[in-house]
Amino acid sequence: MYTFDSRIRYSETDSEGKLTMASLINYFQDSSTFHSEDLGLGIGYLNKRHLVWVLSSWQIVVNRYPRLCEHVTIGTQPYDMKGFLGYRNFAMMGEDGTYAAVANSIWSLLDTRTGKPSVISREMTIGYQLGEKLPMDYAPRKVAILQGGVEYAPVIVKKHHLDTNHHVNNQQFIDMAMDYLPEDFCIRQMRAEYKKQAYLDDVLRPYVAVGDNVVYVTLKDEAGASYVAVEFSGQESGL
């Protein structure tokens, strides 16, 4: 597993001094970026070949949220590649080596010239040196949506939402969705299914449905097609 060490910063914490879900996602996203760049399979490599990795789904399970100034280790490991799909685990560990959070993700390799899937090369499969899957309760990729959701005011995509691929970053989608959680909602698991890329000035229409300790948020376009469907599972007490 590829790892790097860090320390929880003030800018990454909430009002209780704990790491936020948004910051946890950023750590995971950074770890996969560092990994790819260190292997020579990063952004430059992909750009030369007109390729891009697009996130298809997230499953993040939080055992606890590390606190301000805590030393942590962030790790990632690709464990499978099939056709145009890549499967990658993530983990954040405390100083004692136990998992604060673990995650599973599925990525699609696309040709930027056509927008269509591109078969993963043998060079990339060998370079990533696939490892074993992390032990966790793996959920389905698809996120079910409760019926009867409430529609909220639309969100306009701004420049700060975009990443180097010039579309809304996956973490930014989750950050938007988190705005519709109840004030005291503590996320224990987050699942997201990404269905469509969003670009500058696109209009996102949020639909929110609430169940028993679960909140579903779907961000749709003006025609009703989903950009992303997110499921937040929580608990009453903080982690």
- Proportion of residues in helical segments: 10-25%
Strand content: 35-45%
| H-E string | EHHEEEEHEEHEEEE
Mean pLDDT: 92
Low-confidence stretches: none
Rg, rounded, reads 18 Å
Quaternary status = single chain
Q: Quickly count the helices.
A: 4
Largest sheet: 11 strands, antiparallel
The dominant shape is globular
Alpha carbon gap, first and last residue: 26 Å
Number of strands: 11
Category by helix and strand content: alpha+beta
Topology, pairings included?
Blueprint: E1 2-7, H1 21-38, H2 43-48, E2 51-62, E3 71-82, E4 85-93, E5 99-111, H3 122-128, E6 150-151, E7 155-156, H4 170-178, E8 186-194, E9 203-210, E10 214-220, E11 226-235
Antiparallel strand pairs: 1-3, 2-5, 2-8, 3-4, 4-5, 6-9, 7-9, 8-11, 9-10, 10-11
Describe this entry's structure for a reader.
This protein has 239 residues and is α+β, with helices and mostly antiparallel strands. It is 17% helix and 38% strand. The chain has 4 helices and 11 strands, in the order βααββββαββαββββ. Strands 1, 2, 3, 4, 5, 6, 7, 8, 9, 10 and 11 form an 11-stranded antiparallel beta sheet that branches. Helix 1 packs antiparallel against helix 4. The longest helix has 18 residues, at 21-38. The two termini are 26 Å apart. The mean pLDDT is 92.
Quick overview:
The chain is of the alpha+beta class and 239 residues long.
Search tags:
single chain, 239 residues, 17% helix, alpha+beta
